[in-house]
Fold:
Amino acid sequence: MTGREPAHRLCIVIAGGDVNEQIIHPEEALVVCADCGYRYARAQGIRPDAIVGDFDSWTEELPEGVELVQHPPEKDDTDTWLAIEYGKAQGCEEFMIFGAFGGERIDHAVANLQLLHRMAAEGMNGRCCYRKQSMFVHDFSRRHELKLSLGERAGFSLFSLTDVCTDVSIENAKYPLSHAELRNHCPLGVSNEAAEGCDHVVITASTGMMLVVI
Structure:
C-alpha cells in the first residue's frame, strides 16, 4: 500500500435511461457516460471524463478531448457496468448512477437493479438516482445495522434480494418490525416512513441482501 488517496473517490455514471432531474456532479467527482448517456451530460453542460460503451445507441458527434473507451457490441456486460468498472479502475469507491431507469427498455432497468446487487456483493457503494427517488443495496451479512436519515415527508421501502433476510427489525418507523423475515417473493417492506417526530430509521438484520428505496 502506498498510502495515497485515490484520485477520484466518487464516480458519477450517466446511463441511457431517462434523466429528468439535475445531475449532481461535485467538481472532484469522476464523470463517466455509458454510451448514449452522453446526451444528458451534453444537455446539462457537463463535460465527462470518459464515455464508455459499444456506441450502438449514440451515433452523433463525440466530444474532443474526452477519453473514449469502445467495446464490441457482442459482449457479456452492459455499457453501464463497463462504465462502473472504468470508475473502479480509476480508484473510485462510491458511485451515483443516473439514467438507470425509464427509456424504451425495461430489461435494462432490471439489469441495473442487478448491478446494484452485484456492486454490494463486491463491496462497492452504489446508488441509483431517479427523479426524487434513490436506491441502493445493503449487505446485512457485512454490516448488520443501517441508519436511514430521511428528509421531511420521505418514505422508504425494503425488498429482499436474497431468498430471505433474517432477523429484520425496523425502529423509529410508522410500521415497525421486530425480528422478522423478509423474503424475495413477498413485498412486506413496501411503503413505510419515519415515525412522527423521528428524522431517522434504524434497520437491523443478521443476513441477506436488501434493496432500499428512498
Notes: The two ends are 36 Å apart (CA to CA). The chain has three helices and 14 strands. The first helix runs from residue 38 to 43.
